[in-house]
Amino acid sequence: MLSRRVSRLSAIVAAAALYCAQVDVVTATGVRTVAASIYPVPAAVSLSVSDVQKVLAQAIAEAKARALPADIVVVDRVGNVLAAYQMTGALKYIKTPFTGAAADAVDLENLKIANGDVPAAIAKAITAAYLSSGGNAFSTRTASMIVQQHFPPTTPPTDLEGGPLFGVQFSQLPCSDIMQRYVAGGTTIGPHRSPLGFSADPGGFPLYKSGALVGGVGVMADGVYGYDTNVLNVDKDAEEAIALAATTGYAAPTTVTADRVSINGTTLRFSDTRTSDLKSKPASAPPFSSLPASTGALVAVNGYYQSSFGIRAGQVFDTEASGIRKSTTAEFNNPDGFILTDGTGHNRFPAEAGTDAGQVTSPLTTVEVSGLLGQAFGVMSHARAGIRNPLGSRAQVSISVVDTNGTVLGIVRAPDAPVFGIDVSVQKARTVAFFSGKHAASDFSADADRDLFRHPTPPSPAIVPSFVGAFRSFLNDQTQLTGKTAFAARSIANLSRPFFPDGEEGLPNGPLSRPLAVAPKNWSVFATGLQTALILDNIASGSNTVAQCTALPNTSTGKNRLANGIQIFSGAVPIYRGSTLVGGIGVSGDGIDQDDMISFLGLYNASVALKQSIAEAPVGIRADRIVIPVHGSPVRLRYVNCPVAPFVDSSQQNVCDGK
Amino acid sequence: MAAGADAHTAKPDISVIHAENPVIDTKLDKGFSIILADADDDTIGAPGERRQPGRPRTFPQHSEQNNPGAIEAPPPEAFPADQIPVPDRWRLAQTLDVKTNWWDPYNQNVLKGDEPVFGTQDLFLSLTGILDSVVEPRSFPVPVGVQTTQRPGSLDVFGEPTSLFLSETAIVGASLFKGSTAFKPPDFEARIALALNYNFTTAPERLILNIRPTAGLTRSDGFPGVQEAFVEFHLRDLSDRYDFDAIRIGVQPFSTDFRGFLFQDNQLGVRLFGDRDDNRYQYNLAAFARLEKDTNSGLNDITRLRRDYIFTANFYAQDFPVVGFTSQGTVTYNMNREDGKIHFDDNGFPVRPALIGDDRPREYDVVYLGYNGDGHFGRINLTASAYGALGEDRNNVFTDMPAQIRAFFFAAEPSYDFDWLRVRLSTLYASGDGNPYDNTEHGFDAIFENPQFAGSDTSYFIRQAIPFVGGGRAVSLTGRNGELIDLRSSKDEGQSNFSNPGTILLGLGADADVTPEIRLTGNINHIWFDRMAVVEALRQQAPISSDFGMDYSLALIWRPNMNQNLVFRTSFAILDPGAGFSELFSTSTRDKLFYSGLVNAILTF
User: ipTM of the predicted structure?
Assistant: First the structure.
């Protein structure tokens, strides 16, 4: 009690001090400069080789105690695979689930993927490492809870809305142009791609040292790469037990685990397995070096890990070698700003002007982009974190700006923002710029993806173009997807759910989703709809796939507009100059309402600072003017939803109202 | 007789309709002192003269009788010896040619149990009919729909705040009893009361009235509820003055205390009760299996039984510790076994388990040890309640582990009468949970409270359920007609929640009997949260101030005939949010203040 009071008092004092210390200055060009740092930088710690060995040994002991040979992968916070270990006898495949009739399965459902087991373990380790931060520890079970058609997912189902990170499983994709690839024997620069995107299969946990996130561990053992559809029961999962044992000594502080994070009053699941459920004593597990060769071996994964290099040490986060570092004043003039780096000191995504001169009269300028990034960063610096502890923390996110070509014009982030937000913020920014732009219908119609998983040999029909017709019919407007409407990420999310409106059981799907209530009832986290259709063939083409996720036509930049796929949850708005679309701003890493607000208010503040040279979408063309009748009831799309109690340093509410 | 506070709502509590109940209704009378004042106090005294508190009685001057020429009264022998035949004592008035009307419930009426029926000597039928109409405009912090909004440009969480609630309840009841009415406890009674409710509600935003986004901004619903259905047997008399034991089986009214702080409801149960020592001591032993409540009317649904049980024992001692004060000790055990599948209310919201914390189903055992007192110490009136709640919650929603329940509650309302004006001080403390993660739950919650306290349903705080926007979907800070900030999904259908912030209330009130027909009541309550940790954890927001706000209310009660057959009430209350409320909810200029209005007519036969 005493400590609680003290911590609360100190939080107040700290908040007051921070507020006083932070002096925002907006220059004539709209560039926001801030005098003092308000975010602590994560402790400079990392996983050593012996740490990794210990994690592996603890997992192996638990797997042995359960007589369940497992694949165990340890990654650092930026996705370097430090070890991929396959126990002798481990199942060398994964199967993705599908509960309906096999003939109805689509996309990534109901697949058996040979040698998918180690990649699945990598995906689990990366999921935990990327979703977590010093302020929130999320596991793959957490991921499972926030990507399904209802939040929380329950049996029987409720009519509640979908998970807040609905669709995030299709991020960090192997085809992403943002995420780094492993170069044999080479770079440690992250953040790295994941072979299967994000995993919702329990058995992935983050790893911590000295309260700082240093990586993640993923375990694959039972051959089923699934997710938990009912959080009300206690799901005893052997993979989770093995992974939990692995975290012994590296466990997340209990003050930041997902079960201390409340989304609208519902706390998230971290683990259904408790340490008391373990069948081994992890702390006294036989040392890795003592294990007989028959136990198992490190295994290579093409494009991710080279076993001949042995177990590697992790990188210290927020350093040049990790691929994420503090920005210089010239790069981004904020003492808390961090950027992506290439390992040789170069900002991978510096603020720059738009590349779409042939498409728009006046593309975004460098000044506008840096001003926008700065304003959004400023909103973030005051925003109450939706997913971080201790309570009263400020949000930490990644912020991306793209032009109408989908070219990234700049990325900045807070020092401890979850890593997943880098790729996702770009996905979101591209998604809103794309759907609000004039090329959407023509680009989709030209997409030749054919589902190589099920139709490895042509001819087979293209799977993307049909979404154009569905979208237009649904909105009862055959001229849709030609740039007439400003779609925010939340608007696209509304249209990408298996029920429309979101969550209402028994109703048909949104036009960008697979259905759940009507035949063929084949929506699942492995088949979300357009999102999966766009990237399916790249996933199918294996780890050497090109760094471009979709088969849309290329722009003048030589890349297509959705090069890392679309994202279908909130946190981005399109950018306009007058009534002309010039790009999108995407935000990811905190609660979705916070992500919405940081993008929306960031743009609003930038438009004020820049004297309306760039601005929000005109009110009249925003997607929340679109009403779709469902059984006679008008269902309006949403634009953004700014959070309750948005700022830590004021009691303002409804801060986006009227903007 | 009048109904208790709640009879004027969609959730009629007709437990207090019947004055005949020899034990409990005596206690419940205190409940409608809020409506009725102490009518009996006011009517005692010389004819034509009201005894008025604080004012000395004035007597006529002493006078010597001196009547010269007066005639002495005749001796008894002077009267005729032949008797006037009277069929039974109930019909004396008729014999004396008093006219009665079947439609007049106030004067002698065979339909109201004033005379035996069917030509019998001791079988009585009493019919009751109540028409209860409510018009309730109100405002509260309302979130816009998450999935879809009513209006374009809804870019934030908080939407329009205003709502209108209309409710019409018809209650018909019949009681058949054998005995001598007021002269001794009945030998047998069978009673039934059916309530038919129709309600209509408007909401300013989607997803308030129904979980389905396609549902509109109005909702109308109706439900027939069984509010009483019991038989009572008089087991034995223990003295010449009819100290007795009796048993009552079926849906029946019960209250664990004088003001409805813990459990006041009409529920299915068995109750053994009686009195001793010329009614100085009274006792109740009761067990209830709770009926499910219909969501929108609050009436009993006899087709569905909850897995929630109440076992209670209490003992009343009159004139203890002082003459004029009644003390009661009680032990109540609430056994909840509702950890099965999700229970959805009629509007589609999952209410058991509540959408709070880990959302997992849970069950609990809690024992309430209580002391309650009601009466006066000299000129100071006092009603007081104290409860300790001890038990175990099988699943703490913050830790997913079993947790101890250790909570307590105290409320006292001293008052003082100045002539026609009663001034009241209301104090209440319900402990809150200061650490949601320590597996001890310190938040006090009741079973089914119906507080007649601090302004009752005319108070904003007690009347309105405030959605815990951003901290719990389908969860309210306070329940409707409840005084506890307990974060329940529903007072009617939800489970008790002991991980709550707790409540502190300090209030000043006055009841003014402006005329015998008109009472004006005003209340000013200041409300605080006790501990903020639970609220902060659920809102992912800290620090949050503990000041809930000020609640100002004014109520007018008009009883044109000075009885309970026609009662008209109107009230208006304003919540002026405190810092904590503002930090949680909207503080824009538009809805800086929230209001609760009530127009209520109760016509009783």
Answer: 0.94
